[in-house]
């Protein structure tokens, strides 16, 4: 009898995908918004999959969660009130809570089943969700932003890909709403997909945020389970520029990817990524 191997494949575009060996599916559910699966993989540990797309894994989660969080948090001199839109796994909240200045961290996640599954199967990621500073809301992030003007120092948009309930999180009215929800010196960061596979989206989002915020920057990180492995984040700031923050003001934590020494270097982009922002092409 032949040994049977199980493999999970995500078709990341119509022409490209990734595949990884798995042991079993340990959780499956259908929420009001999406299909949720937790898969036990050989290479990456537990893997959270929403509508067939990899959201996070035990092994590489720290890259995304540190990078969506620390650039903005380390740029703002006194982040006290922070909002995470999406991010029901709790990883961004966990990183936000490292900052002693934080008095309140609000999580606005539209799908409560993501939160519950993450608590059960990704306890190291969701570890901060029980902190007394966390206000956990199963709510539409767009609506939450519309209802909270001038409240936040930092807003992190930890969204899924721009399909289904996340489509509105990649549109100019949403960024304008974020601007209004931030204090006069507030900062936002949004995950903005792959420079290889989502070039039009990156151009559009960078243009929309640039037209909304005085300071707009893009930076990248290497995340092996995300499409192409190269991922982008776009920061919009009312006042503070991540390139001019004093090195002495950058906080150091027990992180695995981000460190203060790389803070400014993150914005030195590969030529083909820079060309997405300038409209130039060689």
Structure characteristics:
7-stranded mixed β-sheet; alpha/beta; Rossmann fold; 282 residues; 5-stranded antiparallel β-sheet; Spermidine Synthase, Chain: A, domain 2; 2 domains; globular; 7 helices
Notes on the protein architecture:
With 282 residues, this protein is an alpha/beta fold. The protein is 24% helix and 31% strand. The chain has seven helices and twelve strands. Helix 2 links the parallel strand 6 and strand 7. The chain is globular. The model has no long low-confidence stretch (mean pLDDT 94).
Topology:
Elements: E1 6-11, E2 17-30, E3 35-41, E4 45-50, E5 53-57, H1 61-75, E6 81-86, H2 91-96, E7 104-109, H3 112-121, E8 134-138, H4 141-146, E9 152-158, H5 172-181, E10 182-191, H6 199-210, E11 215-222, E12 230-237, H7 271-278
Parallel strand pairs: 6-7, 6-9, 7-8, 9-10
Antiparallel strand pairs: 1-2, 2-3, 3-4, 4-5, 10-12, 11-12
Q: Estimate the strand proportion.
A: 25-35%
Main beta sheet: strand number and arrangement?
A: 7 strands, mixed
What's the shape? globular
Structural class: alpha/beta
Give the number of domains.
2
Strand order of the largest sheet: 8-7-6-9-10-12-11
Can you say what the CATH homologous superfamily of the largest domain is? Vaccinia Virus protein VP39
What's the overall average pLDDT, rounded?
Answer: 94
Rounded to the nearest angstrom, the radius of gyration is 18 Å
Number of strands: 12
Question: How much helicity do the residues have?
Answer: 10-25%
The top-level CATH class of the largest domain is: Alpha Beta
* Secondary-structure element series: EEEEEHEHEHEHEHEHEEH
Amino-to-carboxy terminus distance:
56 Å
CATH architecture of the largest domain: 3-Layer(aba) Sandwich
Helix tally equals 7
Could you list the spans in which at least 5 consecutive residues all have pLDDT below 50?
none
EC number: 2.5.1.16
Pathway: Amine and polyamine biosynthesis; spermidine biosynthesis; spermidine from putrescine: step 1/1
Protein name: Polyamine aminopropyltransferase
Function: Catalyzes the irreversible transfer of a propylamine group from the amino donor S-adenosylmethioninamine (decarboxy-AdoMet) to putrescine (1,4-diaminobutane) to yield spermidine.
């Amino acid at each position: 009898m032949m040994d049977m191997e199980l493999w999970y494949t995500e078709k990341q575009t119509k022409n490209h995908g990734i595949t990884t060996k798995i042991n079993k599916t340990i959780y499956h559910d259908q929420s009001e918004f999406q299909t949720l699966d937790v898969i036990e993989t050989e290479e990456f540990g537990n893997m959270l999959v929403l509508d067939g797309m990899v959201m996070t894994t035990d092994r590489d989660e720290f890259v995304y969660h540190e990078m969506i969080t620390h650039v903005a948090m380390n740029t703002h001199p006194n982040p006290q009130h922070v909002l995470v839109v999406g991010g029901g796994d709790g990883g961004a909240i966990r990183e936000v809570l490292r900052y002693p200045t934080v008095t309140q961290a609000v999580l606005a996640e539209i799908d409560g089943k993501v939160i519950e599954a993450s608590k059960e199967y990704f306890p190291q990621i969701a570890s901060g969700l029980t902190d007394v500073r966390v206000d956990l809301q199963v709510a539409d992030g767009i609506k939450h932003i519309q209802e909270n003007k001038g409240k936040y120092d930092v807003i992190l948009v930890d969204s899924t890909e721009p399909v289904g309930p996340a489509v509105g999180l990649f549109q100019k009215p949403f960024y304008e709403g974020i601007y209004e929800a931030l204090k006069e010196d507030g900062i936002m960061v949004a995950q903005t997909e792959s420079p290889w596979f989502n070039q039009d989206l990156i151009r559009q989002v960078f243009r929309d945020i640039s037209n909304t915020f005085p300071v707009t920057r893009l930076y990248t990180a290497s995340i092996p389970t995300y499409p192409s492995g190269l991922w982008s984040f776009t920061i919009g700031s009312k006042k503070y520029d991540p390139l001019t923050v004093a090195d002495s003001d950058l906080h150091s934590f027990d992180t695995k990817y981000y460190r203060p020494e790389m803070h400014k270097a993150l914005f030195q982009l590969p030529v083909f990524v820079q060309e997405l922002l300038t409209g130039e092409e060689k």
